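hey so i finally got around to running both of the ones u sent me last week. sorry it took forever, my laptop kept dying halfway thru and i had to restart like 3 times lol. anyway pasting them below in the order u listed, first the sequence line then the structure token line for each. didnt double check formatting much so if smth looks off just lmk and ill redo it

first one:
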Amino acid sequence: MSTISKSSQKRKSDARRQSLIDSTLRVIAREGVAAATVRTISREANVTQGLIRYYFQSKDDLIIAAYEDYMDRMLKISGRATKGADTAKCRLIRYVEASLTAPVSNRQQAATWAGFFQILLHDGHLLKQHAKTYHDLRQQTKTLMADVFEEEGRAKSDSELRRLSIAGRALLDGLWIEGGAIGDSFHPGELLRVGLEGLGALMDVDLKAYRDTKAGCGVV
């Protein structure tokens, strides 16, 4: 088999696997993890159950792969939002904005997370993956905070940055959940303002005022 044929075959295989993951996420968002059986997922993907078993040894393996994909997308979208910002404060502001607006924060994303959370604390493999992705999210936040402090010439120890990043993630995650679940309860832009004000208060930096006066600080 030629190199081109092998490459084409791999792309098709990867696309088929991704399609199964996407179908799983749709089922979880719509009906919860309990409803995400091999039969239900096969109907959603319009494939045979045998094809699912070809790519994943068990339903649990597929659920874990779906969770990894779900969180990886969140990490990448929030991370990409910081690209091109010319100051550390702008990078952090863009990160907060991306974290609290669509496509990261909406009802479907909240529903998907709620579906995973049904089994998260009772599944060792999924809990281990959650610990990893939470660490990655907190590390993103910690790095952005550290850059702001460096930009301002304010030295912070690693233990201080750890504490601030834990508090910062708790703030953003809480707003993310409520924004996705009951977004219509808030005024336009309200959660973003609260997020910037809250994170700014933790860091003693007026992020909201900086965003209002610095051109190009919003997500582009």
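and the second one:
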Amino acid sequence: MSSTSAMPAMPTTAALGKRPASPVRLEGEYDPVLSRWLWLVKWLLVIPHYVALFFLWIGLFFTTVVAFFAILITGSYPRALFGYTVGVLRWTWRVEYYAYGSLATDRYPPFTLHDVADYPARLDIAHPEHLSRGLVLVKSWLLILPQLLVVGFFTGGLRLNVGLAGLLAFYAAVTLLFKGHYPHGMHDLNLGLHRWAARVLAYGLLLTDVYPPYRLDQGDREPAG
């Protein structure tokens, strides 16, 4: 046998550039033509959503506490609680996309925890078959800390209507007012910031053991991997 035949094959360029798929999928459909003025009153239109989300997030706090003990004892996140938590995050994302987190759609968000296939903003998280009992003790306060610092630096926190994401939405609103279109580059960067924060939030809420990558995946759709 020749010496060359024993050498391991070099990875291809495609293999080197391949990204592991994230269990968190956050997407937003780009719409270049939006109302020039509607964003001025969206703060009023979304008040019912903010009231509903206030109570839903209180419920999410308690479901996360219950899930913590369930994972610690059984190594799994109960599906009913998982569905509720993902539903709250999904609802929140739709409101942020419509309102001042992105201002990227004029379609009013539906009042539902369920996925709405034809709404331009969508979020889903794959339910894990098993979660680490040990990681659950340190994910939410220790392991996530570097990610929180990064997300906070770029976005002002996990609530993305402030910081860089909110600033991009504001610039997009001014462009809409004077030019009548939403800059595609601003939309892609805004989505990347939301996508990063959603992965961090999912990890902190114990929904996954996949540590969020330090990576800004821009654009309407999640990378294929």
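quick thing i noticed on the 2nd:
Residues 24-204 form one domain.
anyway thats it, ttyl
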